[in-house]
Amino acid sequence: MTAEKTIMAGDFEVHITERRGQKNMYIRVSPPDGGITVSAPAGTPDTLIKNFILRKIPEITQARERMRKQFRQSKREYVSGETCYYWGVPYMLQVVYEGRRSKVERVPGKIIMTVPEGTPIEKRKSLLTEWYRQELKRMLPIVLAECEKRVGVNINSCNVRNMKTRWGSCNISRKRILINLQLVKKPLECLEYVLTHELVHLLEKNHTNRFKSLVEKYYPAWREAKRILADMPLDYWEK
Q1: pLDDT, tens digit, for every residue of 87-128?
Q2: Cβ-based neighbour number of residue 75 at 10 Å
Q3: Whole-prediction pTM value?
């Protein structure tokens, strides 16, 4: 069972989630604007939570500054000439207005979107998003099977969702993983890293030292993958 509330710690507004059975406090700084979330054992006094946050101010400030500096693409119009990333490689979008059917296909150096004349921007956006979704779903079972074999655990389902603040999440009790749709735009090793990270949650629930050592064991290249996720351009997000 969980309880949620919001408190002020210094100049920071912090969202608190209290969980029964949890032993330690954990802090998360989420993109795009550096929102702060603390997960704490149920019944933890606000004064202890505030002191915990204030001790973490250097790390919070560093994480927020990194998010602020990370390059973000401009607002998409889904017109010819825009850059589209696919498994870490930039492609030029070419929009062709012809016929009555809509489709997206990838050729060397280009992603070609063919739509009827007059197709609105919302429809073009939806078409490209669905193409990305199908491409991720095509690769996901292959990469997941390899990660499950490496970690030595299996899940019941793995689904795709367009998420703003997480690359992935794991429902431990139901053994279900959610993967961020945006990972189809990053190199494949980023997908491997995120899947390994979520699978390790089935062996160690929280981000303890044991959790970090298990991620290191099963995916030694995790630092490079995490660096790529931090350095590559992010999609445009409405505030």
Answers
A1: 999 999 999 999 999 999 999 999 999 999 999 999 999 999
A2: 9
A3: 0.74
Pull the structure tokens for residue 6.
Answer: 């919001």
Q: What is the CATH number of domain 83-231?
A: 3.30.2010.10
Q: How far apart are CA 102 and CA 178, in angstroms?
A: 28
Q: Which residue has the tokens 């990333």?
A: 85
d(CA 53, CA 36): 9
* Whole-angstrom distance, CA of residue 63 vs CA of residue 29: 7
Q: How far apart are CA 51 and CA 56, in angstroms?
A: 9
* In the chain, where the domains are located: 2-69, 83-231
Could you tell me if residue 175 is left (phi over 0), alpha (psi between -120 and 50 degrees) or otherwise beta? left
Cβ atoms of residues 31 and 165 within 8 Å: yes
| Interatomic CA distance for residues 232 and 226, integer angstroms | 10
Measured from the Cβ of residue 90, the count of other Cβ atoms closer than 10 Å reads 12
- Of 126 and 70, the structure prediction assigns the larger pLDDT to 126
Say which residues have a Cβ less than 8 Å from residue 164's Cβ, sequence separation at least 6: 31, 32, 237
- Which residue bears the tokens 């790529």? 228
Nearest 5°: phi and psi at 181? -55, -30
Structure token pair of residue 120: 């609105």
**In DSSP terms, which residues pair with 16 in a beta bridge?**
5, 38
Among candidate residues 10, 3, 121, 4, the one with its CA nearest the CA of residue 60 = 10
The C-alpha atoms of residue 104 and residue 69 are separated, in whole angstroms, by 32
